[in-house]
Amino acid sequence: MPPLAIRAYTATSSLGRGLDAHATALAASRGGLTPNDITSAPLACWIGRVDGLDTEPLPGEWSAWDCRNNRLALLALRQDGFIDAVRAARDRYGASRVAVLLGTSTASIAATEEGYRRLEHGRMPADLHRPPLHTPHSLAGFVAGFFELEGPCLTIATACSSSAKVFANAERMIRLGLVDAAIVGGTDTLCDSVLFGFNSLELVSPEPCRPFDADRQGISLGEAAGFALLERPRENDDAPLFIGYGEASDAHHMSTPHPEGLGAELALRDALERAGLAPDQVDYINLHGTASQKNDEVEAALISRSFPATTRASSTKGFTGHTLGAAGIVEATVALLAMRDGLVPANLGARKPDPGCGPHFAWESERQDVRYALSNSFGFGGNNACLAFARPGAVA
Q1: H or E segment at 241?
Q2: Residue 215: inside a domain
Q3: Which of 17, 47, 66, 339 has CB 3.0 to 4.6 Å from 58, enough for a Cys bridge?
Q4: Quick check: is 206 in a domain?
Q5: 121 given a catalytic annotation
Q6: Residue tagged active-site, from 288, 357, 360, 386
Q7: Where is the Ketosynthase family 3 (KS3) domain (predicted)?
Q8: Catalytic residue at 288?
Q9: Which residue segment(s) compose the domain that 119 sits in?
């Protein structure tokens, strides 16, 4: 696959706003999980909550799109010079030549929940009678409108792989000449449907999650937003590169991974082949690592049989929680920061490593030269994705 330049990227999560906040937290092995205070009824768990969403509504001209999800999206867009980078791309290529490809699993469902709680004679209350808001496409519609873009605008909703799969869509559109640049990423926020829904599946941990710990009790949920701007590289480019992706749908079970990791392995091998990488060239893998019993068991076995011990691996969901449809972009950002800063983040939360984990696991943070990194995102229904990145100058 011809590589694509990552012209700009950013993330906002419970670790803070923008790249510097995330880099600082990762270097200090400081997580962002706090006791749940967001559900309408008590639920004993820990969450990765982003501060400020309940007090920073969208400005007047965007008030029709106002909800926690779109507030978080705008908060993230305002970090790391991302807005300026997108506007420069729009000026360079034209409004119809920049795509908006975003992933989300719940979109603005919190606003819909609120509307149903406050029904007026069986109808949405007047302040929430905004049909475009109550759709899965709310996020992408808002972002495209914010930037005044007229190119392809697509929402991907494949659960936890949503904002990873958008990278693949961007590569295909740019390679086929449909667009010259693409905004990729995603946003998800917390609400009753998310927290009580996962709790009904008996997946939510009563304590901060412990990925790959022998005594792990389940996931911690988080909210986050992240974005990247992809375009073809320029001569003497110093941008990090998106060099490969793999996708697979094994459809083994609605909420449980294939016991041998069939779909995950197909996605992983596809990504390596597209990137032109051998397993021993991969320096770091950001694992999906949800801290659920089956996911961690299957993923640990996949890493052990696929990579040499020199490849470092960790899950960062102990830092942010599982950010659902935003997990792909947030963890891609972590992989990019690992290359930028030469830091393999700790597998935060694990106190007693699962015996199934091999020597690849970085239980504490490590200073390493990271030239090539992968990011795994495995969603419900066997929607699996793996992304491959290279440090500037690593690809001739």
Answers
A1: strand 241-249
A2: yes
A3: 66
A4: yes
A5: no
A6: 288
A7: 1-391
A8: yes
A9: 4-390
